[in-house]
Specification:
Elements lengths: L8 E2 L2 H40 L34 E6 L6 E4 L22 E2 L9 E2 L12 H4 L13 E4 L3 E9 L6 E11 L4 E12 L8 E13 L3 E15 L8 H4 L20 E23 L13 H5 L5 H9 L1 H18 L4 E25 L19 E19 L10 E16 L9 E18 L5 E13 L5 E13 L2 E14 L3 H4 E3 L4 E3 L6 E12 L4 E11 L2 E11 L6 E12 L3 E15 L2 E12 L10 E13 L3 E12 L6 E3 L4 E3 L15 E10 L2 E8 L9 E3 L2 E2 L4 E11 L1
Antiparallel strand pairs: 1-16, 2-3, 2-6, 4-5, 7-8, 7-36, 8-9, 9-10, 10-11, 11-12, 12-13, 13-14, 14-15, 15-16, 16-17, 17-18, 18-19, 19-22, 20-21, 22-23, 23-26, 24-25, 26-27, 27-28, 28-29, 29-32, 30-31, 32-33, 33-36, 34-35
C-alpha cells in the first residue's frame, strides 16, 4: 500500500482562494455564455422567420425567385440561398484523442420522452427519485470501476467528461435548445439544456454545452440544483490535430435519509389518515451534499507522413477538351487558319496541345500519416461538502463526533485534485499494405492530491490532512479499425513507479462482420484483466460522524469476458458475460438498533459505514437479449437481462430486469411524425444497496440486521412523441400504475407518484 505523507494544517487559504476565484469565473462565464446563447438563438429564430416567412419551411416554397413573403425594408433584388445544414459529429478517446465518429441525428424523436428521466432511457439505473439524483447501473456489466472522485462519477445524468462531449464539424452553426418540465411550483422538475457548435473554417471548430437542472422533489427535503457549463474546440489539420475541453459543474442536493416508515408506501391504510408524498415525514432535513467539479483537457497530435496520388474514378476526372476548343488557344487567328489548312501540321499541333493540357492538370494528392506524436493533458478538481444545520439527530450516528463538540452543525469538506500527462508515439494503420494495424506506445505521469478533515479541527477552525500520490505508467495498444470484416483493439497499461506500482490493466476487443443469407451478422468479443489498487476514499474517508482509515486494503483483481451477437435485419442483439472478482471492495452499512424504554422494541437505528473486502472470489454471470419488432406502424422494443452473483449478500443483483416498449408510429399531413406508446421497466425483488447521505453514495445493507427487498414493481409510463421539421417534443404520463406496494427506487426512497411531464427540443442552423 502507498505511504501517505499526512500533514494536518489549518484551512488551506490558497486552495480556497483558487476555488472561489475559479468558481466565480465559471459562474460569470456561465452567465455570459447563456446571454450569448440566447442572443444567438433569437438571432437564428429571426433569420429563420425572415427566410421562411413566419416559420414556413423552405421545403414548401419556390426558392427560385430568391424572395419570400417578408420583404418590407429589405433588398428584394438580392438572391437568398438555402442554409446548408450538413454536419457530422464524433466523440474522442480520452487517452489518445482518437476520433470515434457517430451516426447521430439530434432530431430523432424515438425515446425522447425518456431523455430527461433520471433512471435512464430504458430504466437502467437505480436512483433516489428526483431529477439528477445519484445513480448506479442495475446491470453489473454496465458499471464502471469506482473512481478516486466517485462523488461526481455517480452524478452521471448531467456529468460531462471529455469522452462524452460531441464535437461537431458543420457547414452552418448548429444550435439545439431543450426544455423539460413536470409538476408544480412545490414539487416540479425543470431542465434547460443547450448545445451550440460552429466552424471557424473547414479544419477548426468550437462550441459549448450548457445544462441546468432544478428538481424540487415530490418528497420532503429532496431538492436538486445542478449547473454544468462546458467549452470545447478542435483543429484537424494534416500535420496537427487538437481537441480541447474545459468545464465547471455544480451539483447540490438536499438529503432526507429516506422516508421514516416504508408503510406510508406499502400499507398506507395502517395510518389513520391519508398522506400525500410531501406529507410523509423523512429522516433528515436541512442537510445537503454539494459537489463542485473543474475539468480541463487537451489532447494533441503531430503527424509525419507522405503524400500519395489520389485514385480518382474516370467519371470524375476532367475531360479532354475537343479539338476545336484546343485550337482556340492558338493566337493569332491567322496562324490558327494556316495550321488548320495543313492536316499534317494540324495533327502535330493537336498532339502537342493535348500533351500540354494533360501536363497542366493538377495531380490530386492525399496526405497519409505514417507516425504520430501524442500528448494528452487532463486536470480534474473536485470539492465535495456534506453539511447540515441541525438537520441530523445525534442518534443517527453510531459514534460521538470525531471532531468538534456536537452534531448541531456539520461541514465535512473533502477536495481531490488529479493531473495526468501522457506522451506517446503512434505508428499509423494503413499507410502501406503491410501496416494492417496501428501500434501505440506511451508513458504517463499522474499526480493526485487529497485534502480531508483532520482530528485537529475545532468548532471554529477547519484543519485538513493532506495526502499526495505520484504514479508513472507505461502502456501500449495495437488496433485494426479499417476494413469491413475484422477489427480488433488490444492494449495494456502498467504502473511501474509510485503509490500504485504493480497495478495493471490489460484489455482487448474484436469484432467479426459477415453475411448470413440476407442478414448482416456482427459478433463482438471483449476481455479484460485488471489488478488495481482501491479508490482513495475507500482507504481514507473522514467526517464528523464517519471516520475510516484502511491502510491494509489489498488490490482488487477482475477478469472479465463478454460476447455480443447482433443481427441487423431482425433487430436482434444477444449479449453475455462472465466476470471473476477477487478482493471485491465495497462500502457497507453498519446499523445499531436504538430501543424503546421496554428494551425490546427497535425505534430507530444508528448508522456507520465501513469498507469491506470480500475474501476469495465472486463470480457474476449475465445474459441480455434485445429484440425489436416491427410490422407496419406497430413497433415493440424489448430488453431482458438475467444476472447471477455467487455472493448476493456482498454483491446483490436483481435476477431479472426488463424494459418493454410497444408503440405505433404514423404521420399527419406527411410532415408531423407521431409516436404513441407505453413503456415499462421492471426488476425482480432483491436486497438492493442502500443510499448513505453521509458518504453521498450507495452501500450494501447490513446483513446482521433486518434487510429490505425492493423490486417486483412495474413502472408504466404512457407517452406521445412528435417531430415536425426542426422541432421535437413529448408528453409523458409517468408511473401511471402508482398504488400500494413495494414501489421504491432504492430502500426507503419511493418512486415518484404519477406525474405529467413534457419536453421540447428545437434545432437552429445559421
Amino acid at each position: 500500500m502507498p505511504v501517505y505523507a499526512q500533514k494536518p494544517h489549518t484551512m488551506f487559504l490558497g486552495d480556497l482562494i483558487s476555488e472561489v476565484s475559479t468558481s466565480y469565473f465559471f459562474k460569470k462565464a456561465g452567465v455570459v455564455l447563456l446571454f450569448f446563447f440566447i442572443a444567438s438563438a433569437i438571432h437564428a429564430q429571426d433569420l429563420d422567420t425572415e427566410q421562411n416567412g413566419f416559420g414556413v419551411d423552405n421545403e414548401n416554397m419556390d426558392m427560385t425567385s430568391g424572395t419570400n413573403r417578408v420583404q418590407w425594408g429589405r433588398d428584394t433584388t438580392a438572391v437568398e440561398k438555402d442554409i446548408p445544414i450538413e454536419y457530422h459529429q464524433w466523440y474522442i478517446d480520452e487517452v489518445f484523442g482518437t476520433k470515434l465518429y457517430q451516426e447521430f441525428n439530434d432530431t430523432l424523436p424515438h425515446l425522447f420522452q425518456n431523455f430527461n428521466a433520471a433512471d435512464g432511457l430504458t430504466g437502467e439505473y437505480h436512483i433516489l427519485g428526483n431529477l439528477g439524483s445519484p445513480r448506479f447501473e442495475i446491470n453489473w456489466f454496465d458499471r464502471g470501476i469506482v473512481d478516486d472522485l466517485f462523488f461526481i462519477q455517480q452524478m452521471s445524468q448531467a456529468h460531462t467528461t471529455p469522452g462524452n462531449i460531441l464535437f461537431t464539424n458543420t457547414k452552418s452553426p448548429v444550435t439545439n435548445l431543450q426544455y423539460h418540465k413536470s409538476g408544480t411550483r412545490q414539487d416540479g422538475q425543470d431542465r434547460f439544456h443547450a448545445y451550440f457548435a460552429s466552424n471557424i473554417n473547414k479544419r477548426a471548430g468550437f462550441g459549448f454545452k450548457f445544462d441546468y437542472l432544478y428538481g424540487r422533489g415530490y418528497y420532503l427535503s429532496s431538492s436538486q440544483s445542478q449547473f454544468t457549463g462546458h467549452l470545447f474546440g478542435y483543429y484537424s489539420g494534416e500535420r496537427y490535430e487538437m481537441h480541447a475541453f474545459g468545464g465547471y459543474e455544480h451539483f447540490k442536493m438536499a438529503e432526507n435519509g429516506g422516508i421514516e416508515d416504508d408503510r406510508y408506501i406499502t400499507d398506507p391504510q395502517s395510518f389513520p389518515q391519508s398522506y400525500g408524498s410531501r406529507d410523509i415525514p423523512t429522516v433528515m432535513d436541512d442537510t445537503w451534499n454539494r459537489n463542485d467539479q473543474h475539468t480541463y483537457y487537451l489532447t494533441q497530435k503531430y503527424n509525419l507522413g507522405i503524400y500519395r496520388e489520389r485514385v480518382v474514378p474516370d467519371s470524375l476526372k476532367p475531360q479532354m477538351p475537343q479539338a476545336a476548343e484546343l485550337m482556340m488557344s492558338i493566337r493569332p487567328d491567322s496562324l490558327r487558319s494556316v495550321i488548320q489548312a495543313d492536316s499534317t501540321r494540324l495533327s502535330i499541333t493537336l498532339d502537342s496541345l493535348r500533351n500540354a493540357w494533360q501536363q497542366a492538370q493538377p495531380v490530386p494528392m492525399d496526405f497519409v500519416p505514417v507516425t504520430s506524436f501524442l500528448h494528452t493533458f487532463k486536470l480534474e478538481r473536485l470539492a465535495h461538502t456534506f453539511y447540515s444545520n441541525g438537520g441530523i439527530e445525534s442518534s443517527y450516528f453510531s459514534n460521538a463526533p470525531y471532531y468538534s463538540s456536537s452534531f448541531s452543525t456539520i461541514e465535512d469538506r473533502s477536495v481531490g485534485l488529479r493531473i495526468r500527462n501522457m506522451l506517446g508515439i503512434q505508428l499509423r494503420e494503413g499507410f502501406n499494405k503491410w501496416a494492417k494495424a496501428g501500434i501505440t506506445l506511451y508513458a504517463a505521469h499522474e499526480f493526485k492530491h487529497f485534502w480531508i478533515p483532520s482530528l485537529e479541527s475545532t468548532d471554529s477552525t477547519a484543519a485538513y490532512d493532506s495526502y499526495v500520490e505520484n504514479n508513472v505508467f507505461v502502456g501500449g495498444r495495437i488496433a485494426k479499425t479499417q476494413g469491413r470484416a475484422i477489427h480488433f483493439d488490444a492494449g495494456a497499461e502498467f504502473c511501474v513507479a509510485g503509490a500504485n506500482a504493480g497495478d495493471m490493466d490489460i484489455n482487448g476487443t474484436a469484432d467479426l462482420n459477415f453475411r448470413l443469407g440476407r442478414d448482416t451478422v456482427r459478433f463482438e468479443v471483449s476481455s479484460a484483466f485488471k489488478l488495481l489498487g482501491t479508490a482513495f476514499f475507500f482507504s481514507h474517508f473522514h467526517g464528523k460522524g464517519i471516520w475510516m482509515d484502511n491502510d491494509d486494503l489489498a488490490r482488487e483483481t477482475r477478469t472479465r469476458v463478454e460476447g455480443k451477437l447482433t443481427i441487423d435485419r431482425t433487430m436482434t442483439s444477444l449479449r453475455f458475460g462472465l466476470e471473476n472478482i477477487s478482493k471485491y471492495t465495497h462500502f457497507a452499512s453498519v446499523l445499531t438498533p436504538n430501543y424503546a424504554s421496554n428494551g425490546t422494541t427497535v425505534t430507530s437505528y444508528s448508522h456507520d459505514i465501513t469498507v469491506n473486502q470480500q475474501d476469495g472470489s465472486i463470480q457474476v454471470m449475465s445474459a441480455a437479449l434485445n429484440q425489436d419488432l416491427h410490422l407496419g406502424i406497430f413497433h415493440w422494443d424489448n430488453a431482458v437481462t438475467w444476472q447471477h452473483s455467487t455472493k448476493p449478500d456482498v454483491l446483490p443483483l436483481p435476477a431479472l430486469s426488463i424494459y418493454t416498449n410497444p408503440y405505433i408510429v404514423f404521420h399527419i399531413a406527411k410532415v408531423l411524425r407521431v409516436e404513441l406508446g407505453a413503456d415499462m421497466r421492471y426488476f425482480t425483488k432483491y436486497y438492493a444497496p442502500d443510499y448513505s447521505p453521509v458518504i453521498n453514495t450507495f452501500a450494501i445493507q447490513d446483513v446482521n440486521q433486518e434487510r429490505i427487498k425492493i423490486g417486483n414493481w412495474p413502472i408504466i409510463n404512457v407517452y406521445a412523441n412528435f417531430a415536425i421539421k426542426r422541432v421535437r417534443g413529448y408528453i409523458n404520463y409517468t408511473h401511471a400504475n402508482a398504488g400500494n406496494g413495494f414501489a421504491f427506487w432504492a430502500p426507503h426512497y419511493p418512486i415518484d407518484p404519477t406525474s405529467l411531464r413534457f419536453g421540447i427540443s428545437w434545432n437552429f442552423y445559421d
